[in-house]
Amino acid sequence: MEELEALWEEVRELSLGTSTHIERLDLPPSPVEFLRNFVTPNKPCIICNAMEHWPALSLWPSDDYLCQALGSTEVSVHLTPNGRADSLVPHPTDPSSLCFASAHVQRMPFPDAFHLISDPDKNENLVAYAQQQNDCFRTEYGALASDCEAHIDWATEALGYLPEAVNLWIGNNLSETAFHKDHYENLYAVVNGEKHFLLLPPTDVHRLYICPYPAAQYSYCQDTGNFSLNLEDPVRYVPWCSINPYLPQGRDKTEMDEFPLFFNGPKPFECTVKAGEILYL
Ligand SMILES: O=C(O)CCC(=O)C(=O)O
C-alpha cells in the first residue's frame, strides 16, 4: 500500500507540481499552449478575458432580461430541502447508513423558476437549483443561444471536437454540487456571481472511495411545503463518492478514520471562479 501511495503521489507531482494553487491566465491560450500546458497534464486553469465578447456578460445580470428572453419557456428545476441534489444523506429507514438522494424535478415557466431560485428566504426549507444538464443550454434555454458563443474556438481546436453538451446552472448561495467524478473535459464559464470549486486530479480517483449507495428521490408537496425521501423500488445502487470534503459537525473523527486516503492525503485544488472567467477542469 505504501508503495502504491508513493506512486500516486509521484504521478500527481510530475504532472501538477506540489502547489494546490490554480494558474490564472490573463488571456485565452493558443490551442497548442492549452493542449500542452493544461489538457495533456490534466491540469486545471482559470482563463480570464476569454468571454468579453459574449453579450451574456452584460445581459444576464438583469433578471428582467432573462425573464423576457425566455418568456414562458418551461425549464426543469431541481428542488431539495438543502440545496444538495445528488448527494449522500441518511437512509430514510436506517439513518445509521447513507443513500444517494436525487432532487424532486419540476418543470415550470422560467420566470417562476427564477423567482423560486433567487428568493430563497421566501421559501424556507426549499432550495431551487436549475441544474438539468443533458445539454440543457441548447434545448431548454435555446432562446439564449445568441448570448454566448456556440463553442470556444481555442478549446475546440485543441480538443479536436465541438462540445458534446452545453449546460447551464442557475443557483443561489445555497446551491451545492456534491463531490463527484466526471468523465469529460470541462470548460465552466461563470456569467454572473461566482462558484467555488474543490478539485482532485484524475489520478486521485481512488481517494474518493466510490461505493454503491441505494438510490432515493425527494418528493416535494406544494400544499404542505414538506419533502419526503423515498427509496427507489426496486432498489437501484448508484456508485457515488463517499467523501464530503466539508465535514458536517460531529462526524469529523469517524469520517477521517474511515477515509484516510482522502483526509490524510494532499489537499484538493481550490478556487473561486468569478463572472467573466472560465475554469478548465
Ligand atoms: O455548477 C454546479 O453546481 C455543478 C458543476 C459540475 O458538476 C461540474 O462542473 O462537474
From TrEMBL:
PROSITE patterns: JMJC. Pfam families: Cupin_8. Residues 128-281 form the JmjC domain. It comes from the Eukaryota. Belongs to the JARID1 histone demethylase family. This is JmjC domain-containing protein. It comes from Carnegiea gigantea. The lineage of its organism: Eukaryota, Viridiplantae, Streptophyta, Embryophyta, Tracheophyta.
